[in-house]
């Protein structure tokens, strides 16, 4: 990825670290006469308002800025709002050499620039197999058929009138996320190594409600989910999962599904690989065995070292990545530093995340902050003091089943390097003394 | 509001209700030979795939739609995504006669079209007093001064390097939300009666961390929060609240704050009236008493019946509203119906929400669904069977302090009708037999 696509916002004057230090260290730093920030200058020279000249080192403190002098834009210049122009580089990105056509490609979530646990709808990664279907919600139909007592077709209004509507936050990770890293460090940015994931709140109706009304026959052991896009995406799902926690969803993060996420209706398959979450959901067929569709045979199976393929590896195991620092979010200055990242597991909630700054020799338990629910993205932080030494940053997730995220070496020993799917190995970032960060692997 | 601004999406053919009914009722409805939905037709006439002709009543079931025949748009046509063109009416709206200029006005959240508990960033209501400040994040500075041991100035990077970053979901409600309803039902849509509220996840640093580094002097009992916009919004906040749960926030729902929400930094004052959540936060000054600024004297005080004003009524009491059905979201057909709405309290979490369909004579406890954390928006549902009778819909929230949302009559008996602030009275929607809904008051 060309480095000029990497945002370089943020002021880096002096030791802004000072405010985060103890008062003892704080004052001693100020006393050292090092290049100091306005904050330190203010502390060292007394009240700013009383002595504006003391703000010499920082020209942006005392003068009243233009934005405080003149009326700004009105309240409704954008009836549907947009990000600040200063955030224009925070966008989804393709890796053009990765795929042959943009209709069957992926555009990655800019994880390095995000925080918290929710992915904004406009930045949720996009994976299409036949392009984005543009569906008229009035003409949309959803069919339930196959081994059922009565075959049914629902309009979008019908779905919205079903009892038992729920709201749930779940991560959606493509089975091929980090797939390009199987054979070694390759893509220089967590947007590209781990950006095939997003985490949003879904509003929808449990799939079970539709199957109950249709009446699943005793022989019904699997369901086929089919999309209405040109790729006619189809996947086989065990009836147990279909009757457990799958959702027929029509809203994300409070508003209608986005077109690229399956508007007006998608299937939600919590904790399971992304391409089972069929977008533009057209039908659910009940059968007595899996259908062995293209996307579960020639694709989305794990080719092992001996040439055999592992099929139906539905669950996304525990995984994590440090999003900052990372190649697109280098460290800008020494002193107090907030390291942050995300962790998730398809088997439950994240119980603990450990972080290493020395390539896995020593580990510190990170601070999990914010929502921490099953099969949903968890945010972690490690606040530390960076002295400018070289770092080998890693994170290691543990879920509440006791499963521990493995190293890439451990994964390769078992599964070889033929697969591009289900790579949940530990990621390593090398932070150089100048703060620049790159994708590497440790011995 | 002109009715032509009201979205009329959604298919309303026949009794799509059937799938949500018991099998007994379901089949009897199908048997009545009423105008029936595709679902009913399918059930009444056997498998659709075997007998497509049976789908006669619904032309949209059997033919393969165009969106399944041709490639759609590529994965990155919108590097920052947008809603479907079919959702173009789901936008923030102004009430032009309400304010003199759009730079000092409000644009309301389209609550009637939203679901779940999160408000999408692009639809969060906007209230400006001097227009939207456009702040260069590199030139942004945040000052802490007044009765402190050391006055400090922070860059945006300094703020992001402070330890103790947190992620919290909180509602923000303008003190004037529902203000136009004090003297009686006036605005015909919950977007306008209750749309000065939004609920998002904030990422930021506790204000206490900044005050601790600066060192609050013993005489420091209040803080002044000042915005960098042309209105120089200023509010006085008791030191106890400043040291409790206030946040200096730089992200919302995972991404940078939106410009109209205070980019790059705003103050978060959980549970307290919206205009204390100072946007484009420029400084926090510590003092020994409130400053009696414009926005806490001539404005944002509650004028009582006897002409006296109630000041510093910071906390937003428990409140709720049914968002669907509502004037902008009328009922479209008889049968199974999902009534939904939102509830919130500045004093804690919502413990219970009751719904009445007959103007408050009888109440049913609604189903609270999704996140239910303190000082954050809660979603409730009531699934019921509508026979086409006239309804008088109300909702009544209770928070975990035991406080119960009052009627408008109860509020007026105590506070008169001179105020436009802090109206948390119970809202009534009249649903006519044709489904059209309007804003009314009972007895």
UniProtKB/TrEMBL annotation, chains A, B:
Oxidoreductase molybdopterin-binding domain boundaries: 131-292
UniProtKB keywords: Metal-binding, Molybdenum, Oxidoreductase
Gene3D superfamilies with a match to the protein in the record: 2.60.40.650, Oxidoreductase, molybdopterin-binding domain
GO annotation terms (biological process): sulfur compound metabolic process
EC number: 1.8.2.1
GO molecular function: heme binding; molybdenum ion binding; molybdopterin cofactor binding; sulfite dehydrogenase activity; sulfite oxidase activity
PROSITE patterns in the record: TAT
Originating gene: soxC
Cofactor: Mo-molybdopterin
Limits of the Moybdenum cofactor oxidoreductase dimerisation domain: 314-427
Protein name: Sulfite dehydrogenase
Domain of life: Bacteria
Taxonomy of the source species: Bacteria, Pseudomonadati, Pseudomonadota, Alphaproteobacteria, Hyphomicrobiales
